[in-house]
Amino acid sequence: MLCERRGFRFRSSARMLAALVFILLCVQPGHGQTCTEGFAYDRGSRQCLDVDECRSMPDVCRGDMRCVNQNGGYLCLPRNLYNQPFRPETPALPEPLYPDTSLGFPEPFVPDPAGSVEASYPRVRSTAQCILGYSPAEDGSCHDIDECETNTHHCNPTQVCINTEGGYTCSCVEGYWLIGGQCQDIDECRYGYCQQLCANVPGSYSCSCNTGFLLNTDSRTCQDVDECEEEPCSHGCLNSYGSFMCNCDEGFELAVDGITCKDLNECEFSDFLCQHNCANTPGSFYCLCPPGYYVFEDGRSCEDINECDTGNNTCTTEQVCFNFQGGYTCLDPLQCQPPYIEVGDNQCMCSAENPACRDQPFTILYRHMDLSPGRAVPADIFQMQATTRYPGAFYIFQIKSGNDGREFYMRQTSNVSATLVLSRPISGPREVVLDLEMVTVNNVINFRGSSIIRVTIFVAEHKF
After folding, report:
1. Taking a C-beta distance cutoff of 8 angstroms, is the pair 399, 433 a contact?
2. What is the DSSP annotation of 182-234?
3. Domain match, 288 and 420 both
4. Tell me: the pLDDT tens digits for 320-362?
5. Is the pTM of this model over 0.70?
6. How many Cα atoms within 13 Å fall on the side-chain side of residue 273?
7. Does residue 320 fall inside a structural domain?
8. Domain co-membership, 251 together with 357
9. pLDDT, tens only, 359-401
């Protein structure tokens, strides 16, 4: 029983010649002899002889292809490939054949007389005319022509030649695309290749970042720079996306450069920051008070120092210390001028039995008070009233002396009382002595007399 033959046809194109022969093993019955695909066992010679598929298989090659018998197979080749008919040698015994590697054949199999079977492939031994894109080699094979190397291509000057098997391809380098046969630059910036700033260059592009950002290793994206790590600010630093902001400690303000801090002069903000004077210090301030005052707990207002209570005065033991706003005075013991005699606490009396007292006030009472110059007017500052009332008598209250500047007046509040009123703003420091007179009139007994309250007013220098 003969082994079933299988022939394969191969076609060629304008650029590449491809030939492929598949050798399959088959088992020949009889005498235990086995032949490879493409051979038949001859009982007369007891050998495996080549089968001529070109004769035994009608129309094995179709179209404009020519069948060429090979040892163990056949080839379908174009008729114009060879100048003369191909005459393969047919040896009595199959000999090891080596394929034409330019045609892509695998290594052959050689039948082993001991019984093992190896495939065997034919080779083309004649000089071939190669198709377009190939050139003949000394071993009879066809080698690819590198049109790019030999400069035989027809690519546009703006294009790049890429060699292929049997031909070449015209393409563009990276960064260009083919439009109308010309390689034109791709404007990568139009397609958002860069996260922030983009500069297009021929065939490429360059990314950069805004101030405050750093280009990442991918050369496209940007990351925020923490400027505060370099301590650019003289005081404090606050990082922000793409920038930073300096801040200053309390009592300082940011300079025009936005980085350094300068002292804030709080004393220039307002005249009311301190009750008296303001002293600026780096980053802060403190308030000052005039002599006779101390800075209160709030750190801004001034309080009078009571030198009489603290003992910080120069009064003798015979004198009386009298404190007023911003200072003090030492009062000498009361000495009544004749014809007055001392009758009690700060009071002098002129007796009616003494003829020298006839036209003098009956009593003089001494009082002391202090007054701030910033007091709003009109202001009630002192009150006087009759301590003894007589039937049928009425009382008249008036300022007898000391009111040269007309800053005061008396307002009678009842039949027996009146109030001293500050009617105009008064400035200090100064000392004002007012004689406030109360005149008693009794028409029933035809009596007229008077009493004096001598008020010494210490006007302070400051309004606090």
Report:
1. no
2. EEEE--GGGGT-SSSEEEEETTEEEEE--TTEEE-TTSS-EEE--GGGG--SS
3. no
4. 999 999 999 999 999 999 999 999 889 999 998 899 998 899 9
5. no
6. 16
7. no
8. no
9. 899 999 999 999 999 899 999 999 999 988 888 889 999 999 9
